[in-house]
Amino acid sequence: MREWALFALSFGLGGHVALGMMLHAPELWPWDKAGIYGLLVGLSVYVTIQVVRSIWWVITEGLRNRRTAMTSHH
Predict the structure, then answer these.
(1) How does DSSP classify residue 2?
(2) How many CA atoms lie within 13 A of 64 on its CB side?
(3) Spatial distance between the Cα atoms of 64 and 61, rounded to a whole number of angstroms
(4) Looking at residue 44, what is its pLDDT?
(5) Is pLDDT above 80 for 72?
(6) Which of 23, 25, 42, 62 could disulfide-pair with 11, CB 3.0 to 4.6 Å?
(7) pLDDT of residue 74
(8) Distance between CA 8 and CA 54 in Å, rounded?
(9) Residue 47 pLDDT greater than 70, yes or no
């Protein structure tokens, strides 16, 4: 369930960012591209979150394994 929530929040944030850019810089972000820009920004947010989660998992697992190795040698 958590993955679907992250997915939905990422695309919601992407849509809001695209809308904000179109409202504040319409010459750079034309309205006829609103859907694709919202989709791409949302996908970028989702991928970024997944990369950060993966890095976090690798770091915390590495620390956990190091602690386990240190306690088992004594």
Answers:
(1) H
(2) 6
(3) 5
(4) 96
(5) no
(6) 42
(7) 55
(8) 19
(9) yes
10, burial (CB in 10 Å: exposed 0-12, middle 13-18, buried 19+): buried
Per DSSP, the residues of 10-74 read HHHHHHHHHHHHHHH-TTTS-GGGHHHHHHHHHHHHHHHHHHHHHHHHHHHHHHHHHHHHHHH--
- Identify the DSSP state of 1: -
- pTM score, whole prediction: 0.75
**How far is the C-alpha of 30 from the C-alpha of 22, rounded, in Å?**
6
* Percent of residues, the chain, with pLDDT higher than 70: 92
25-43 exposure pattern, b = at least 16 Cβ within 10 A, e = fewer:
eeeebeeeeeeebbeebbe
At residue 66, what is the residue type? R
